[in-house]
Amino acid sequence: MPPHPPIRIAINGYGRIGRCFLRALHASPHRAQFRIVAINEPADLATIAYLTRFDSTHGVFPGKVEAEGDYLHIDGNPIHVTHATTPEGVNWKEHDIDLLVECSGRYTGRDELTRFLDAGCRRVLLSHPGQSAQDVDLTVVYGINHHAITGGERIVSNASCTTNAIVPVLDLLDREFGVEHALMTTLHSVMNDQPLIDGYHHADLRLTRSAMQSMIPVATGLSKGVERLLPQLKGRTQAKSVRVPILNVSAIDLVVSLRRDVAAEDINRLFSSAARRAPAGLLAYSNDPHASVDFNHNPHSATIDGSQTRTIGPRLANLFVWFDNEWGYANRLLDVASYWRACFAKNGR
Ligand SMILES: NC(=O)c1ccc[n+]([C@@H]2O[C@H](COP(=O)([O-])OP(=O)(O)OC[C@H]3O[C@@H](n4cnc5c(N)ncnc54)[C@H](OP(=O)(O)O)[C@@H]3O)[C@@H](O)[C@H]2O)c1
Questions:
Q1: Average pLDDT, whole number, for the chain?
Q2: Which of 73, 69, 25, 68 is nearest to 53 (CA)?
Q3: Has residue 216 got a pLDDT over 70?
Q4: Distance from Cα 88 to the centre of ligand 1, integer Å
Q5: Which end of the chain, N or C, is surrounded by fewer C-beta atoms within 10 Å?
Q6: Under a CB-based contact definition with an 8 Å cutoff, are residues 233 and 182 in contact?
Q7: Is 325 flagged in the annotation as binding?
Q8: How high is the pLDDT of residue 1?
Q9: Domain 162-325 adopts which CATH fold?
Q10: Which residues form a coiled coil (predicted)?
């Protein structure tokens, strides 16, 4: 029996990350801590049930999925489904929500996020960064600063998937060798904000181009995200992001200038030993000859590919970091929810 009754969870926006979060929770040994009681998603219930059962990236759902009335049943447990596009469009109070996991990506400012609290949710966990650090009570990368959660927060951001992948790497490099400058290039699998063939996008010309035909450089807030977590690197990082035509799994090509002389072997030794000590699921290390698909459904925030570590001159290094942007990230959302729950459950819900 868990030490506290399960907390009541809602998912707002049941797309790639919302559905991966439900799956990660279903697969988790800690699932008795949580009960998903509500999902709010514009799509109709039959499609929601269908995409819960069948997933082109992560396979067939291992539990029983049924749709009936306004409810999605997972292994017989009912989840009330609504289709609102505003925080006030759902009667959250009726569902007594301890934690809303916001996975639509539509709400980033404090004013709009507070609307969920005003509408009856006790807390909001974001699957993306806040517009600024001040728009949320805390931005967390699990394994780096989750101990800063006190339980008193109302809005917490789980940062981005790329921030979760690169911050543990930069943090370790900085502590061991000192990071002077860091240049990060993310190779990111396609997302649902891209069309399959050319189509209109109202804010970004590059997102008008066929996702499956091109590598497409897109805007990224990674540098800002890194500096939010590692303020000592402020003004010393830069980032680019390229969407690549694969369904899932991403990588970061990291170029760092360091403050001490290093060889590739020193870097690999550092990360292989850190991976052995890291809590399960956070940091991994491999020397195998990988292709990206090897990391599909991998729960780690980051895997250092030791076969790709290079140095030139005494202090310039290049690392390659793999991560499953969906499954790794959904598992970190769950880790943060679990840690936050332990903090606030002590003082009642
Ligand atoms: N995919 C990744 O690898 C990844 C990793 C980490 C973080 N994230 C972040 O997580 C967020 C979601 O990404 P995603 O890839 O899961 O996107 P997605 O697949 O497009 O899912 C978002 C879902 O939210 C729905 N939605 C739109 N407006 C809504 C509203 N007002 N209320 C409730 N639901 C609404 C969308 O419906 P419509 O399609 O009808 O608009 C869609 O089904 C983004 O902020 C993204 O940056 C994504």
A1: 96
A2: 73
A3: yes
A4: 18
A5: N
A6: yes
A7: yes
A8: 46
A9: Dihydrodipicolinate Reductase; domain 2 (3.30.360)
A10: none
Chain position carrying tokens 């991994």: 284
Nearest CA to ligand 1 atom 33: 13
CATH 3.30.360.10 spans which residues of the chain? Answer: 162-325
Residue written as token pair 């040994």: 29
Residue linked to tokens 């049930």:
49
Average pLDDT, stretch 315-327?
A: 98
Strand 138-139 and strand 124-126: pairing?
A: unpaired
What is the best residue among 17, 108, 167 to mutate for testing ligand 1's pocket, by most ligand atoms within 8 Å of CB? 17
Ligand 1 atom at shortest distance from the alpha carbon of 193: 20
Mutate which of 104, 252, 324, 335 for ligand 1? The one with the most ligand atoms within 8 Å of its CB, which is 104
pTM flag (> 0.90):
yes
Interval 53-79: pLDDT, tens: 999 999 999 999 999 999 999 999 999
Report the CATH fold assignment for 7-136: Rossmann fold (3.40.50)
Give the closest residue to 99 by CA, choosing from 326, 333, 347: 333
Instruction: State the CB neighbour count (10 A cutoff) for residue 239.
Output: 21
